[in-house]
Amino acid sequence: MITKRKEILAVYEQGPEAVVTLVTTLYDIIAEQQKIIELQAARITELEERV
């Protein structure tokens, strides 16, 4: 937990653009994970129907 805090503060100290880049990257990761979750949910539904 402390490491993450230190990493975030290091980005903050680099300035606004570094923060924007970090947040944008995190949003992209969340979007990718959401797509994976949706695919997995659809697959689960498909498999449940088979059972």
Automatic annotation (TrEMBL):
Lineage: superkingdom: Archaea
Name the UniProt record assigns to this protein: IS66 family transposase
Source species of the chain: Methanococcoides seepicolus
